[in-house]
């Protein structure tokens, strides 16, 4: 093979590799890009609404950058984040022990619990391609076996904390604009404003999960891993399309 042919082949392989990166990561890239676009849209809409409130109160309007650094924007963002990560945290841990007959969102009925080391490919049953900590026989295996749920629960707690801190700051700013006394963080945690923001998100997330679990028993989406194969029986459990 000549140098020119080798060069062309190398370029083709490089192009294929670049193409496979976008394909192999398309789910993360698509949703990540969508997140940034929607976050920007939320900032623009929130900024306009916030300035309308300032105008009504006879105060000076602020710029977009200043709004995005404000507690008002922060509380709106974090109250949604904490509810989303709560959903995943509960679903990850809940599906260890809870099942739904016929749902692809559930594991098979006979696999309730943490399952055997053989099924989970840990310790002596780990393969050559298994993560290093999965093959360990000490605390590392224990931590790694819970790592997904721990990270999700940790992000939930941090997001909820951020919501409470930014929430009390936004609440106090509103109190001051109305010439009323601000309150402390501890008092805000027991306030209707905090729990109204929190519970309205929690109930929607729990409803969404419950709806997905039960509808997937009877309905199908061809080609989606969140659905059973179209021809699967309604009673087939833990089967993905």
Major β-sheet profile: none
Number of helices: 10
Q: List how many beta strands DSSP finds.
A: 0
Name the poorly predicted regions. Answer: none
**What's the SSE pattern?**
HHHHHHHHHH
The average pLDDT is 89
Span of the ends, CA to CA: 44 Å
Structural class: mainly alpha
Proportion of helical residues = 55-70%
What overall form do the CA principal axes indicate? elongated
Return the domain count: 2
Question: DSSP strand (E) fraction?
Answer: under 5%
Q: Radius of gyration over alpha carbons?
A: 25 Å
Q: TL;DR of this structure?
A:
Helices cover 68% and strands 0% of the residues. The chain is mainly α and 241 residues long.
Reconstruct the topology from this structure:
Layout: H1 3-24, H2 26-56, H3 64-68, H4 71-97, H5 117-120, H6 132-135, H7 139-145, H8 147-177, H9 185-189, H10 192-218
Describe this protein's structure.
- This protein is mainly alpha-helical and 241 residues long.
- The chain has two domains: 1-69; 71-241, no CATH class.
- It has ten helices and no strands.
- The chain has helices spanning 3-24, 26-56, 64-68, 71-97, 117-120, 132-135, 139-145, 147-177, 185-189, 192-218.
- The longest helix has 31 residues, at 26-56.
- The model has no long low-confidence stretch (mean pLDDT 89).
């Amino acid at each position: 093979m000549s140098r020119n042919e080798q060069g062309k082949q190398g370029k083709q392989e490089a192009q294929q590799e670049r193409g496979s990166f976008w394909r192999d990561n398309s789910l993360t890239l698509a949703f990540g890009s969508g997140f940034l676009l929607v976050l920007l849209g939320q900032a623009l809409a929130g900024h306009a609404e916030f300035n309308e409130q300032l105008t009504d109160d006879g105060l000076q309007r602020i710029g977009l950058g200043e709004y995005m650094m404000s507690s008002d924007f922060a509380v709106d963002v974090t109250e949604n984040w904490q509810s989303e990560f709560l959903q995943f945290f509960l679903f990850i841990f809940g599906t260890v022990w809870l099942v739904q007959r016929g749902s692809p969102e559930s594991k098979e009925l006979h696999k309730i619990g943490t399952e055997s080391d053989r099924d989970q490919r840990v310790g002596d049953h780990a393969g050559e391609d298994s993560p290093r900590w999965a093959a360990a026989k000490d605390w590392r295996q224990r931590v790694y076996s819970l790592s997904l749920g721990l990270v999700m629960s940790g992000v939930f707690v941090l997001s909820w904390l951020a919501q409470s801190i930014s929430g009390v700051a936004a609440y106090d700013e509103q109190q001051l604009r109305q010439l009323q006394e601000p309150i402390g963080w501890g008092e805000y945690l027991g306030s209707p404003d905090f729990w109204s923001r929190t519970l309205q998100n929690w109930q929607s997330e729990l409803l969404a999960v419950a709806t997905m679990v039960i509808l997937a028993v009877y309905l199908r989406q061809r080609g989606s891993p969140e659905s059973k194969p179209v021809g699967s029986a309604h009673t087939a459990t833990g089967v993905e399309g």
